[in-house]
Q: What sequence folds into this?
């Protein structure tokens, strides 16, 4: 089996709701992504959904590294792509491209075995603990509450993560509203906040402590800059909540200062930035420290496939329990608070190209 | 696809030559062996080599499970052992089962394990390791020359009891390897015979004459302060880990930056546990090196590791009841395309070995040598052929 070519289709994806965080408080209704279809000589196609900005890098990596290679050698190919990154030092565009291709390669590897990705990875059918994440800074209080209430009632999600960074009174009020909304489906909701790296460490301590007078927080994300290990360690020492770090990292090495200085209490991994191969490496490293691993949201919630092989998996982020758009379908369903992957071969993403064109037009209109 | 049963066979083998280190420079030739077969309802059998005891205590945890779910089964076994601990005999049993499960997973995909694990090629750089403290200077040269003729350009010498002899023998090893490279890679291994400060003095003396890639087990396996002290005071990298049996054991070495290279093998909680260790090391910028194995089968895993430098090849002749097609070519272990580990058991030879156990000198495991960590007891003239 050999990779023959790639087809990358840009797509302006209409979001299910206005999404925003502290650095983009106005929010957005569309997201620019791309559909990666990695073709092989045996007729199997590896699917991934990546960042639109990475398209040129994706095409370059496929022609430079992947064409002619057996996709089942995905871990070695990941390393080979990482070496290209080392040589070119082109930053995040290339990382995003490597991650998208790694997801497509794992899709091919499991399709070649005619089994779901979770089985290829060596897992039993994952029943992965999940939480709701509204990316909700741009939502009104009512919209935000309604969304979390629906997540708790309809999908049984037992935790919620609020984007903070409005004024202190508003953040505090909204935290209470999110909690009340989640309580419509679960008696003891797990509360998390994300400050999107908009605070200084001391500001994070003051604000978190104030919230902790009223609420029990499971973790605080983006408490300071992701690379600021002394600052994050300072926050962790001063608040009860765990400090969650790593979403912005695209290489395994960026986590090293946090491991070494124990400045992260929860290791957060984004397969869209670091690929499945990198995520597996990091999960093992985190297991060495017995640090819980959280997975950032992935299109179609395909990160559920990984949970069963991560020895210290904690929870995964769900932004949309079902795809907001019709341009792809997923085999992962959210039920009673769990993300459960099905038996379809590969990662279970299926793309309808006709729909791509249609939704692209719609997204354009929504702008 | 379900796991239905297992079979364990134990046997004693006489290797084709003696092997020895600072703890037993006179050497041994007897090696106990064991083979585990995991049986399934689909007529495919997973094999693991090396450790077979205690399977009955863990088999119930995986009985009836799908072997392709091996990582989840590892987590299940590890959790099952929570209170008693994943150490000692429990670690050996867990390792053996995990190895056989990976063999099954690869065989079910009808591919070699390196491919199942996601490597693009079954090809791993090799270094020669004579386990050679029991070899005469002539035999030492002959061993490394035979390895160099296969393209292997690096070697690891057993040292620790006699600095003058070790210097001479390092030169012999280098000369023997020089047909493979103008600058052969040199490593030494003292098998925990020294204290950290003894190690620093001894290694620096050797480093006046030789550039060493790594020194192996220059202090006790758990002594992260001591190992780090050695690493800080010598030019060579410090390698350790072969006597630790899971990620939890190795954690202090990595977290405290005590070692530069971690020796890994499947006895560290199986293929799954070994990969965990390699991945944690990788996240800290550390390298791993695969230990020697019968028919070099552990190269299957090394091929898929992101931070593997080179794998130990000892070749003492301990494959009498195995059939395999791996080979060494231009200094690399080249794995065959046979499924799983690429190893078949020659049951007829195994039966013969069991019916008429061979006899010979010494037997694994052997104890620590007198004086270790405090004072050096040089070998007596009749103990080794090189004094």
A:
């Amino acid at each position: 089996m050999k990779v023959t070519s790639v087809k990358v289709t840009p797509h302006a994806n209409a979001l299910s709701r206005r999404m925003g965080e502290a650095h983009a408080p106005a929010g957005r209704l569309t997201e620019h992504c791309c559909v990666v279809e990695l073709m092989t000589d045996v007729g199997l196609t590896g699917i991934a959904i990546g960042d639109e900005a990475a398209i040129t890098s994706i095409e370059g990596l496929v022609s430079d590294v992947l064409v002619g290679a057996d996709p089942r050698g995905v871990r070695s190919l990941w390393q080979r792509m990482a070496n290209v990154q080392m040589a070119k030092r082109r930053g995040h565009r290339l990382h995003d491209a490597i991650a998208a291709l790694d997801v497509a390669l794992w899709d091919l590897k499991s399709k070649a075995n005619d089994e779901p990705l979770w089985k290829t990875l060596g897992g039993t059918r994952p029943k992965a603990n999940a939480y709701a994440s509204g990316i909700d800074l741009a939502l009104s209080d009512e919209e935000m509450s309604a969304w979390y209430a629906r997540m708790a009632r309809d999908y049984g999600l037992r935790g919620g993560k609020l984007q903070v960074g409005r004024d202190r009174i508003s953040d505090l009020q909204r935290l209470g509203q999110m909690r009340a909304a989640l309580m419509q489906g679960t008696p003891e909701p797990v509360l998390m906040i994300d400050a999107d790296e908009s605070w200084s460490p001391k500001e994070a301590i003051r604000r978190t402590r104030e919230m902790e007078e009223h609420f029990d927080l499971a973790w605080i994300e983006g408490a300071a800059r992701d690379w600021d290990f002394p600052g994050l360690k300072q926050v962790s020492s001063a608040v009860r909540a765990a400090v969650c770090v790593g979403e912005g990292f695209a290489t395994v090495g960026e986590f090293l200062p946090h491991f070494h200085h124990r400045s992260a209490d929860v290791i957060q991994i984004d397969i869209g930035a670091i690929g499945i191969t990198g995520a597996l490496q990091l999960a093992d490293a985190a297991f060495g420290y017995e640090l819980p691993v959280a997975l950032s949201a992935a299109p179609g919630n395909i990160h559920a496939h990984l949970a069963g092989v991560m020895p210290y998996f904690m929870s995964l982020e769900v932004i949309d329990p079902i795809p907001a758009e019709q341009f792809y379908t997923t085999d992962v369903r959210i039920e009673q608070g769990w993300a459960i992957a099905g038996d379809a071969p590969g990662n279970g993403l299926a793309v309808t190209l006709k729909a791509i064109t249609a939704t692209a037009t719609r997204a354009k209109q929504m702008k | 696809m379900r796991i239905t049963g297992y079979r364990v066979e134990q046997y004693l083998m006489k290797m084709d030559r003696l092997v020895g280190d600072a703890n037993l420079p006179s050497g041994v030739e007897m090696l106990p062996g064991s083979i585990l077969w995991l049986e399934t309802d689909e007529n495919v059998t997973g094999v693991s080599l090396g450790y077979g005891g205690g399977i009955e205590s863990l088999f119930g945890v995986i009985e009836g499970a799908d072997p392709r779910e091996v990582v989840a089964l590892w987590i299940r076994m590890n959790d099952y052992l929570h209170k008693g601990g994943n150490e000692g005999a429990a670690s050996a049993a867990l390792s053996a089962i995990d190895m056989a499960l990976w063999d099954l997973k690869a065989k079910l995909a009808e591919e070699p394990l390196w491919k199942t694990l996601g490597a693009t090629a079954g090809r791993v750089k090799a270094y020669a390791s004579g386990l050679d403290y029991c070899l005469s200077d002539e035999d030492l040269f002959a061993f490394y020359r035979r390895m160099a003729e296969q393209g292997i350009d690096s070697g690891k010498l057993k040292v620790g009891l006699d600095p003058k002899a070790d210097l001479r023998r390092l030169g012999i090893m280098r000369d023997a390897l020089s047909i493979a490279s103008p600058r052969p890679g040199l490593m030494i291994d003292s098998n925990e015979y020294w204290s950290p400060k003894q190690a620093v003095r001894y290694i620096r003396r050797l480093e006046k004459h030789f550039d060493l890639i790594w020194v192996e087990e220059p202090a006790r396996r758990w002594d992260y302060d001591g190992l780090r002290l050695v690493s800080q005071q010598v030019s060579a990298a410090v390698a350790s880990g072969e006597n630790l049996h899971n990620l939890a054991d190795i954690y202090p070495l990595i977290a405290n930056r005590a070692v530069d290279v971690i020796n890994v093998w499947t006895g560290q909680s199986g293929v799954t546990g070994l990969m965990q260790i390699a991945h944690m090391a990788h996240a800290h910028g550390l390298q791993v090196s695969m230990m020697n194995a019968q028919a070099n089968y552990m190269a299957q895993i090394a091929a898929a590791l992101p931070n593997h430098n080179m794998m130990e090849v000892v070749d003492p002749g301990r494959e009498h009841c195995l059939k395999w097609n791996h080979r060494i070519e231009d200094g690399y272990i080249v794995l065959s395309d046979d499924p799983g580990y690429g190893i078949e058991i020659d049951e007829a030879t195994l039966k013969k070995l069991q019916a008429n156990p061979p006899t010979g000198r010494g037997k694994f495991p052997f104890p620590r040598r007198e004086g270790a960590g405090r004072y050096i007891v040089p070998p007596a003239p009749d103990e080794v052929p090189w004094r």
Q: What stands out?
A: Chain B has two domains: 3-110, 114-353. The mean pLDDT of chain B is 95. Residues 153 and 181 of chain B are 6 Å apart (CA to CA). The radius of gyration of chain B is 20 Å.
